[in-house]
Known about the structure:
Keywords: Cell outer membrane, Membrane, Signal, TonB box, Transmembrane, Transmembrane beta strand, Transport. This protein is mainly beta. The protein has helices spanning 2-16, 27-35, 63-67, 400-408, 451-455, and strands at residues 37-40, 73-76, 84-87, 95-99, 124-131, 144-150, 161-170, 175-185, 189-200, 216-230, 233-247, 255-271, 277-294, 304-322, 328-348, 355-379, 382-397, 417-432, 436-447, 459-461, 466-469, 477-489, 493-513, 526-548, 553-566, 579-588, 591-600, 618-631, 634-643, 665-673.
Amino acid sequence: MKSSFKAFLLINGILLTGTSAFAQQLKDTIFKRLELKEVYIQGYAQSKHPGSAFYQSSSLSSIEDILSKIEGVSLIRRGSIGMEPVLRAFSAGQINIVIDGMKFFGACTDKMDPVTIYTEPVNLKSIDIKYAGDGMAMGSSIGGTLNLKLAEAELNADKKLSGTVASGYYSAAKAIQNILALDYSSEKWAMRASGVYRKAGNYRNGSNQLVDFSQYEKTNASISGKYRINENSTIKADLLLDDGWNIGYPALPMDVGFARARIAALTYKLSTPQKFLKNLEAKAYANSISHAMDDTRRPLVPIHMDMPGQSNTQGAFVQTQFGKLGRHTLNLKLDTYHNRVKADMTMYPANSAPMYMLTWPENHQTVAGLYLQDLISIDDKSHIDIKVRVDAAFSKITDKMGIDQFAVLGYDVSKSSNGILKNINTGYTRYLGQRFTLYASAGYNERLPTTSERYGFYLFNRMDNYDYIGNPDLKNERAVNAELNLLFSENNFSFKLSGFSTYFQNYIIGKTISGLSVMTTGASGVRAYQNIQSATISGAESSLNYQFANRHLTLNNTLKWIYANDNNHKPLPLISPLKSITSLRFVHGSFLIQAENEISSAQNRINTEFGERASKAYSIQNVRGTYSFMMQKYNLDFSAGAENLLDKAYYEHLDWGRMLRPGRNIYGMLTMKF
């Protein structure tokens, strides 16, 4: 651990040395870069973040491609798509993943369908990431919030009709990807429509082996309409449809037959900057997710089974921004949602009648919350940011079979479960001269157990080879967090260094239970979720962006490191090692070329009780280029590149089953804009 931390300090010391001085940056811009981790999607908005262009290799990049390059973000990989986002070692119910502020809950008991799988970059304007208590506006959470902000139709744009068409091919999986986006704009109303089609076969890894069950196919379509009611207000409607099928998960014993999402929202916005009520936004939304795990394509299956799941959520929120009251600026949000989930399993043993059980008994959960933010200006060099949130949560199992299943285990789940969640976070910003900004924050947060943690019934975990059952008596996880950020910023150079730590009480983790028979053939035993006394997660991150040589060259670097223990000083499972991504980009006129190096140290701090094994260090190289030109009235971009240029056989620590990643992946694509 000490050697990794020394390496972290050494690398950042080298990168910080030798920079030149340029003109002063605006203070509010510095604070935005510091407080917000908002990555704008290339081609649909101009980025506010100095390194965001490096997060997206092309217009055909997936959400996962972008997230994997952001400091503080990791991905649990079980297949080629549907990777589970991790924010600073927090995942699943510890974080909020929302689309345009709308709450979502996956329908898969094996976490094959994180919310990110149901969107595409062409749908989005930006990805906004807030860590720990800074993200509580979207709901109670311990680890933060990932908000996928939808792209909007633009009123009174320069062009009445514009659009983008792109198509690409990737060699490793013989994959094709196509997108279409159309925008219509007038003074009174505007519309935006987009579509995506992706198809990939089984990919070849760095050992030139075909990885079975790594294929997938999906489509995505969205339409957004906006109408100007008057000078100060608009109304917007959004519809998003996402369908995936034949999605392979080589690290799991089952694949996905289909995964479907239907998302609809209606939003009203009012802007009156000269009045006390400056901004108001009201949204009503609904989403439905259907998911079915499937093992019919797998050879030598001991017992064939079907495992469908369904999740439906309806919600609404109103948020307002008020004008200044002396030194105070207030933001208020009221929100509520109702979620219903259910998942079951039917097993078909040879020469026997089918067996049926509920893996998620039908659970109805309603949450209503109040969020208040007070930004207090102390003087022109410092301010305090206080955020408070209270949620009332109600949960109830509604089917008799689910109640009976848990009665066998000695639990009475016939009554509703109610609770109050409390969150508070305080941040202090100080401008240290013209170039440096300091931001410190501390807070207390709580979160509800997930449906799997509370009501899951014999859910098999391939990583540790145990069946898991829920615990209806779980206490809410509680956490105290602290963070310190230092930012240096000038015109062509910015650097951010962050350190953070979280102390848990009632940390939720699986513990082995004796005396219960396994349900899954070959499972090592049965585990139930329990609260342990405490746990800690600490870490550090940095990001750097430097433009030089008359801005023809740009250097970008991100670095992330995590250290975590339980109350017995044993490592928590699934903690990423030290990782750094460095890119150098050259731009001249219509030509761009970029080289990228990704380095990860070995991870030897593992928890063998949960099936972890040490992972090796690796280093891979990527290169890509783009040439833009005009053909009649159309703008054309031709892009090509190679990922894992040296065909390295490698995997990341969070890749289940140590499944090797794709080998050399050569791609090319053509984009037309009009």
